[in-house]
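Researcher: Please generate the 3D structure of the following complex. Treat every line as part of one assembly.
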Amino acid sequence: MTVSLIVIAVVVTALAFDFTNGFHDTANAMATSIATRAMPPRVAVAVAGVLNVVGAFLSIEVAKTISNGLVDDAKITPVVIFAGLVGAILWNLVTWLVGLPSSSSHALFGGLIGATVVAAGADAVNFGAVISKIVLPAVISPLLAGLIALIATYLTYRMTERSDPETISTTFRFGQILSASTVALAHGTSDAQKTMGVITLTLISAGILSPNAGPPFWVILSCGVAIGLGTYVGGWRIIQTLGKRISDIQTRQGFAAETASATVILASAHLGFALSTTQVCTGSIFGAGAGRRLAQVQWGVAGQMAIAWVLTLPAAAAVGAVAAWTAGKGPLGTILVAVVLIAASGGIYAWSKRNPVTADNVNDVPSIDQTAPAAA
Amino acid sequence: MKIEWAALGLVSVVSLAVGVVVVVLFALGAIGLSSRRRALDGGQNGRGLGVAMSTAVAGACFAAVAAILVYSLYIIAAA
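Model: Done. Output below.
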């Protein structure tokens, strides 16, 4: 059987998305560990990268949710998936540029849904699955993670308030290395699977795999490596937002936040809920911030993020729809979409160079407790 | 439209319980280490748990955290 050019193009684009997913989400695992200096920045991203690759091999439940049931695989083509990926990648790059921890997963689903609606009509999208497996978990999971982190942080501070402060700080710093590593592992499990699902869906729609097939080994491996590399490159802009701009995080809070995130992500991945690791981790950090008395939480930042979260799926859907419409005009249209994607990505990268955030300056943000006005 | 309320509820309850229990166990372990250090420094005037007991408490708590982590990963990988 010959593998057509478009299938190869989709696989490459999907792996490119996986790479942006990695560097967009390094912050989820490592932001608080870098902020509390539990780990040096470069060591943190290297550990996260390796554990993302390992995590990719743990489970395929989420991949199955995406390849079997989100959209009707009989009605879509590789071109539609390509257009969806274009929407997802562009939204991921724009939100990274402004340092917003928006959901890579929702960008992916949005792009796919938009492209599918334009190419095959609204009835090719399984909106029941969208609500049950994506929208509801998206609303519940950050609140749940925030609640766990809040309770855990509150209890930790109450329990340890009469202990030796230095021992407590050192112990929790070590604990953070473990908890952050577990989040990185969970991220690999949850998010690498989303790209595996997309590539599997492509192979099914091209007739290379039978419907209901799971991801082949080479798909699992390449997705794991792509997300691991992306993680290692490090999305320093978002690490700065999560680690430094929400609240002044201490090691006990970081540990509570990361443990809450890892638990929610792993439990959900096990049952095939494709939730957003970004939203879970952000919810945890807000919860951990609110759980320590006297800690200041920048709720204004929460407002900005909430807007980005609500916009993510429709925005990526809109780009995906435009891309699907253009690519649907024939091979020239598809090539045009690819050229626009590459040009826009290059442009965003060039723009980011004007104001770079790197491993060296990621913690150079004035402490919130000093800069914030004394608003209750 | 079929919404998997049971599965959503299960994920929520299990996450809440496991997340809070792990952090509390780790905090107990840290308190054990703190108590051990104070016992070693001899600053407690006979109060506190003593070195051996503190070490045992800390060790047991950290072992429990490790066991929960390994078991969770085992469940997921075995599925």
